[in-house]
TrEMBL record:
It comes from Pygocentrus nattereri. It is found in: Cell membrane. This is Ig-like domain-containing protein. One of its GO terms (biological process) is synapse assembly. Residues 21-115, 123-216, 223-303, 308-388, 393-488 form the Ig-like domain. Its main location: membrane.
Amino acid sequence: QTRSSVSLWTLFCALVCRLGAMLVQQPHDVVVVAGQPVTLPCAITGYHGMVLWVKDGLALGVNRDLSGYPRYDVIGDHSKGEYHLLIQRTELADDGSFECQGIQAAIRSRPARLTVLVPPDDPVIIGAPVVSLRAGDPLNLTCHADNAKPAASIIWIRNGEVLNGAMYSKTLLRDGQRESTVSTLYISPSNIESGQRITCRASNKAAPNGKEATVTIDIQHLPLVNLSVEPQPILEGNLVKFHCSAKANPPVTHYRWAKGSSMIRDVLGDSYEVVVDHSFFTEPVSCEVTNALGSTNISRNVDVYFGPRLAAEPQSLQVDLGSDAVFNCAWTGNPSLTIVWMKRGHGVVLSNENTLTLKAVKQEDAGKYVCRAVVPRVGVGEKEVTLTVNGPPTISSTQTQQALYGEKGQIKCFIRSTPPPDRIAWSWKETVLESGTSGRYTVETVSTEEGVISTLTMSNIVPADFQTIYNCTAWNSFGSDTEIIRLKEQGGRFVCWRVHVNMESLFYPCLGVIKTRVTPHLECRTRPLRLCVFRLIPQGSVRRDLEQ
């Protein structure tokens, strides 16, 4: 009976509590960002019983007593039946389904879904704030945004433009709600510049404006080197300055200079001053620049202007008659030079090449040849060589030579001969004389640079000497040559002397010397007509001379 009484009383109270009770305000689905407060409304009019908030089927507390949830409060005007649930600083744990229930009136609200959003942590670019890579390598950037609900979306931005082509992956965390997002961006070497800033922006509904992380790209490379030289043009003997300008990342650590294969050890900086000569034209100057990644070497041939310098010296030649003679002569010079071959004493250009070829040489080809090089506006150089032609002797003498009657006379025979003559002989009438003295005749032979001179000397020239034919003959292993030489009286013959002595006119034969005890007055005529001068000599004698 007692139990029956209690049950009836409870039913009675429920009926009483329900009579006139109405749910006028109930919670609705709401989305909130973690950390923000949220209020779930609930108002029951005409009800004076217990009000219960339930989350995911579990009661949070009765009426306004939610002591087990310090961030939860039931607020509102109790007299109006307001039992609003205030959640301060929402957390991910608050995410769920909430109901407001009037227990005695058997009233319950519809379930209201509270969704708690969690913004991603600040994104992190691996390697930031500066990512270094070697020139020529591609760029791979990885950015992760963790602990987001929902998972963060990641975009990459450079110079205000979104970069496409990134790859993404998501990982669900242990709480089953939050996720981490990883994005990897690949950029080809041709699309990267040092100093560029690339931004990773992560966003979700909790952080619609996104959170950013930025990285600066540092492209490291070997030194980029340029080697210059001033002033221009470069003349041999001038002071010039070589400058080695380099861009390097990491910075340059040291410089090293060389000329050709030789190190320049006393120059350590980026400049090198030197007085240049022609060797700089063929021995390049090089500058080696080093940084932490390695070294770059650049070399430069210097366009030095210099006069002709002999590169291959021509050699004198001795060839047989009829053979070819080939001279080689090489010069260097800058700017380009002109080569001229000429025979000494002749103005004819024989060749403008390094090589001079004389075909089937003759005796007259023998002599000195000049190889001349001309560098316009810079200088001239020349080298002389001798061509010696092996062949029979060649005699070149005046065929008619002169002598004074009664005086000592000479006739000369000039002989060019390679090899030198083995024998030289003078012959006239029945006489042959090679050397030494025979009667009035003496033969002497003298060697000179040009050849051999053989001289036939005759003492006390007589008229018959002017009628004689003289032969000069020379021999060597290749043959012989002969020259016929005649002797001519110098100035003609005297035909008479008129001598005035003591006022008497006397005729004397043209003997040349008159002896008298007095000073004579003399007249002389010659054929052809010329004046004669008579000079007094010791013992009262006079000697005649032609007045030229």
